[in-house]
Here is the input.
Amino acid sequence: MYSLLLYTQSENVYLIPMLWAIGIVALIALVVLIFVQRRTGGHLKRELVELDKVKQNNIEYEFVLKAMHLCTWHIDCKNRTIAVDADYRDDKGDLVAIPEVPIEQLFNLIEKNDAQRVRAALEKVCDGSAFSYHETYRVLAGKSGLTYWEESFGTIAARDEEGNPARVVGTSLRIDARKEMEASLIAARNKAEERDRLKTAFLANMGHEIRTPLNAIVGFADLLPVVESDEDRNQIISEIQKNNHKLLNIIDGLVSMSKVEAEAKSLVKQQVDLVPVLRQIIDSFSGMVDPSQVILASQFPITELMVNTDIGKVKEILTNLVQNAVKFTAQGSITLGFDVPQGDMLVLWVLDTGKGIDDADQNRIFERFFKVDEYVPGTGLGLSVAKSHAESLGGSIGVESILGEGSRFWVKLPLR
Here is the structure.
């Protein structure tokens, strides 16, 4: 019994420390477990925060692409393939399809005159000789044959182990509206430059044209009181009257030109017989030619020609054409006529046997202030006024001429 008691006491002596050791180990394990869980939880929380940030960035990125109507793409430099990552353009056109396709497919969709330039620019980026890419070009819009303008930007996004470009990323957007605005601005600039050129030509031309008859009028008027011979006096009066007529024609031309743009859309149409009007026009020039040298004639295939038009503008057109013929016809004839109407159009013409017009000048004869012969008096406005009036009436005007043989000016106008 005593020995059994001793054994039991000795066993308890070893058991208590063992329990304490196990408890301490368990406590340490629990502390370690709590620490690990806290670290893991913190890491997981940070990962969730980062994930939320990435998600938010993707949403913002997508919003920016949509707002700017951009298309994003990337190029595999090694395989020479291109793929569209996202496309938020209003009209996606026919750039490329998803997934990756050979880059040559892109060049086939670009207008031929621009494709070579775009190919060269992309090749420079893909082979590393350039870091970025920026080009504007025209893209063929399907089978319709129409094109639209596109602008692209690109840059190297990744390189291989040897430092060569492995991936190029970029964006594309349509710029039709910008190109239209640029074209409008260029047209406005050209128009302003043309107006400035015309103003300069006007001042230079008018100074000479007005001074010439005015000097003659003043000079002959000063001689008139001292001339005793009736024959000389009558000749001086005749010269003054001729120069008065020239000066009035110049002023009439200026007034007509000043009204052209303001009244381009102002038409006063009426039903009228054109034959008496044409006779009146040709008769009004009878005192301006030498009947022994130049015959004024008319050629009307019918005796009545009813038209619904602005007769004032028609008279001014034909008056300017006949007046131009009178200036350049020293011998022969000047004929005013018209062809039998075909359909809804009427062709009126003025035929002369004057000096004619060179082929190179026929394209410019209707420009403002253009003169075939600078030595012949005139403002260079008559034919320009005629052209403007003809177009405002819905018609057209032109000339057929052989140098040294004469000219035929025609104007085509609608009957109604």
In short: The chain has three domains: 68-174, 188-262, 263-416. Residues 1-8 have pLDDT under 50 and may be disordered.
